[in-house]
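Structure request: GIY-YIG nuclease family protein, Propylenella binzhouense.
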Amino acid sequence: MARHGARSFTDEDNALLAELGVEAEAKKESSRTPREERIIAGFEEIQRFVETHGRAPQHGEGRDIFERIYAVRLDRLREQPDCRVVLEPFDHQGLLTAALPGTTSDPDELDDDELLAQLGVEVEPNELTELRHVRSAAEKRAAEEIANRQKCEDFDTFKPLFEQVQRELSAGLRQTKEFERKAEIAPGRFYVLGGQKAYVASMEQPFTNEHGYTDARLRVVFDNGTESKLLMRSLQRALQKDSAGRRIVEPSAGPLFSNQGEEGDEASGIVYALRSKSDHPSVATHRDLVHKIGVTGGGIARRIANARLDPTFLMADVEIVATYELFNINRTRLENLIHRIFGPARLDIKIKDRFGQPVTPREWFLVPLFVIDEAIGRIKDGTITSYVYDPQTASLTRTR
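Returned structure:
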């Protein structure tokens, strides 16, 4: 909505217009105060927004900063009778007659810097006094809280928790996912922030902050031995701003294995233990201890049908000594977990394939069958991440 004032003519202009038979229009002096002019100009910006977007500006953290400014400005224009009197002749869109939720009641004069401050936004102008960088004051406070850490005096209490989480991540029992909302923040949960694991050790009684949002003070311990007293919303903002910010999800509930699948379960495959009939000295000497442990999604009989031609099976026939059916499990992650547990007992053997090329099989281990059974049991109950196989004692031993 452009407002054009009448052109001011000089005496020479008037004389020339008179000779041409044109009557000059006398200049109309504005009767509006500077404040009223500013009120109208600010209202016209809101009207242009409505013309562009087809709706009135709205509040909300997810809205563009200028839309939020216009929404606050419109609230305040509606609330002040003197502003309504000035603007009603221009309100062809009916913006002054419809109230939006979340109106404010601050009667201060319309100043964008004050509006930005009310929105929790700081503006840093460049040399041309133009908007160069907009940063949320809440984000700034969150960053300061995250950076303000102190030594965790009882870190020995938390260190085993971080170690176990890392083992579970390595084993595939835990995964990370993108952080999405504050509801995911709760005591006892782990996160990744700034490349470090963060553990919410405790949460104080929730309260309502000055903006009407639920918040709570947290004790957050980091895996580098520091801790910080953070507000829940500060941690939320920090995780959302961090492109690598993640939540470490809990291990899947329920057993990994079952003799029978429950309704809705999908069979994912079979864990098997095989014994080789190879006459290789390393195998023949310890035949009852040498086992191939793997996971397959198909039938085992088909998998081992051509074992004597496959270096993976030591170029020899094999016998099946144990199988364990599994449901709803990632086969690759499970196999990696099993191989990690028995890694210290991996059989160091090289054989030649049918073309005479040397091959080093990686799935054969010097492990008694009863220990394999125990490992599967501990995978079922979720305790396996605290164990590793000890070849000296031929048993699973706790790592902590």
